[in-house]
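User: Please predict structures.

Assistant: First:
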Amino acid sequence: MTVLASNLKPSGSQLLPRHVAIIMDGNGRWATARGKPRTFGHRAGVEAVRRTVEAAADIGIEFLTLYGFSTENWKRPEGEVSDLMGLLRLFIKRELSVLDKNGVCIRVIGDRSRFADDIQALLKNAEKRTANNRRLKLTIALSYGSRAEIADAMRSIASRIEQGELSASDVTEDLIEESLSTVGMPDPDLLIRTSGEQRISNFLLWQCAYTEFVFDEVLWPDFDRKHLEQAIENFAGRERRFGAVL
């Protein structure tokens, strides 16, 4: 196991975020800068995922959520989407045994019905196989959009009201949270976006109400443990007031 940087504290410390979410951006620009097709960047991005999961587990992060494929990404050229689906298949098949052995619990959020049957089966098997692992809870957002997630939650609650199971006065923030796909997970303490873009692109809108943001100029394929530690150090230097005056 890699030794923690001296100024990073183990799990449970106020200085270490319990839940880190990452918007992995910049694969296409990374490839273009090298005169390569965008798919070349996506392949390099898979290596960055591997490094980041390993680093997060070593550092002691409890929850890591990666924005892998948004609902908007389906609008990309057919060839690029096909290549991304191939990389998803390859990643699960190649990495599942290693992730399981290293105590990583996998969870997938998003509309997986849009994926091919074999990918749906791979995702279900990955979740089932790693369900009892506790070292790191890895959530991958695939075919995910936060507005759709919230709309689904509202439909679920509305249906329960129609059936007489709930009344309008029962609708609270806690009930909404229990109806989201992230139920059981703490809200992200820290959200990192690579590539220098400064927006959250329909990612965990409800959950990020009091999340600290770090926007890093590095393109995702170049992201490594050093960048993760720097973001955590940035987080550790902030005063989180959650709307209160301390």
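Second:
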Amino acid sequence: MQFEHLGAKPRIHPDAVIAPTAVISGDVQIGADCQVLHGAVITAEGGPITLGVNVIVMENALIRASATNAVHIGGHTLVGPMASISGATIGDEVFLATGTRVFNGARIGERSEVRINAVVHLRSVLPPQSVVPIGWVAVGDPALILPPERHEEIWAAQKELDFPGYVFGIDRDTPDLMIQLTERYGRSLARHDRDVRLD
């Protein structure tokens, strides 16, 4: 399914293959020989998304751009089942395994591997040929790569990256943080009520 969102329509190379149950919405450019499988969602929420050549987006993966963080995925990259990419830049020949999470402002260098259920956190930077092991967390610039049981170290680096401030423009110490966050984000997402289905 393809949708015009905020006046922008997807641009899909004729050699790309899009499953009928995939959703492509807004300012999305998909390159030659890409494969987007069943249940995948690629949604440009105010910022563009670009997939290079031969990118594979597997079942139920989510790729989302925001007005402040575009998404670029380099050629010959595989986005595994149930992976999630939000507002990040991914280099060429990158492997994002099943269930990986890549957050806003992150940059992953070419030929890197982010293994099953691993996380590349907000504004974190992985140099080329990096490996994030199964279930581990990459956080910071340059990224520290830590196992999940080192939560205090992860949190120390993560707190400095300021997720609510960077993504939502809201101070973490705001007493009604979640009220402001959900109301503001909800208004932004409600713009989909004006989407136009193209197919």
